[in-house]
Amino acid sequence: MIFSRNDHPINKNIEANRMQFAGTLDTLPNNAKKTILLQSSPRSSTEGAPMVVSLKEALNPPSPENFEEHPGYPLAVLVEGELTSVYRRGRLVAGTKKVADHKDEGVSTSLIVIADGDMIKNQLDKGQPLELGYDKWTNSFYGNKEFLLNSVNYLLGDQNLLNLRNKEVSIPLLDQAKIEEEGGFWKSMHALLPLLVLGVGALLFHLWRKRNY
């Protein structure tokens, strides 16, 4: 589950996105403007490829010590500006025919790079595609469809459609690590604090009655 920063028209007020086996993206210093649209949580780590993934790993949850605090890994990036051709600076393979009137740099444009092709993958049920963003195993809807529609509208310059589609969404998701660390304390506070408030109120009321009557 990938959550957005809600700081751009593309990812503002959308549900969590669902990715499977996502890669990571690196942004290079150049004249193009880069905006990170989606990123992993601070409690995440990377693994080298290739890697064997098995359901047996679910029986051995990873240790929290293996996940260092960091801003998060970029998973979807918007690139804007005059993009440089990958064939510039003699990158053509030997023997490749050069294209006439090619351009080393294009006009100002926008490009969105996503580190997981499953973002646009529909699940199937009896051979029929399900709605994009729906997970039949958990019966949950994710924001993949809205994210992609917003991306297309933004690249086409349809800002009005983005403003109409954006809506406020409250996602009740709790930090499971903090729940395990601080859950007992807050449960005790919720149980004892009302009793304490009632006891203090009753004591003050008793003192007030004793003083006046």
Characterise the protein shown here.
The chain is an alpha+beta fold and about 210 residues long. Helices cover about 25% and strands about 15% of the residues. The chain has helices at about 145-155, 160-165, 175-210; strands spanning about 35-40, 75-85, 105-115, 125, 130, 135, 140. It has a 3-stranded antiparallel β-sheet, with no helix packed on it. Strands 4-5 form a two-stranded antiparallel sheet. The protein has a two-stranded antiparallel sheet with strand order 6-7. The protein starts with about 30 loop residues before the first strand and ends with a helix. The mean pLDDT is about 80.
What structural class do you assign from the helix and strand content? Answer: alpha+beta
Q: How much helicity do the residues have?
A: 25-40%
- Rough shape? elongated
Taken together, the total number of domains comes to 2
Number of H/I helices: 3
Instruction: Spell the H/E element sequence.
Output: EEEEEEEHHH
Question: Main sheet: which strands, in order across?
Answer: 1-2-3
> Strand fraction band?
15-25%
Largest sheet entry: 3 strands, antiparallel
How far apart, in Å, are the first and last alpha carbons? 63 Å
Can you give me a brief rundown of this structure?
The protein is α+β, with helices and mostly antiparallel strands and 213 residues long. It has helices at residues 144-155, 159-165, 176-212; strands at 33-39, 74-84, 105-114, 124-125, 128-129, 134-135, 140-141. Helix 1 packs antiparallel against helix 2.
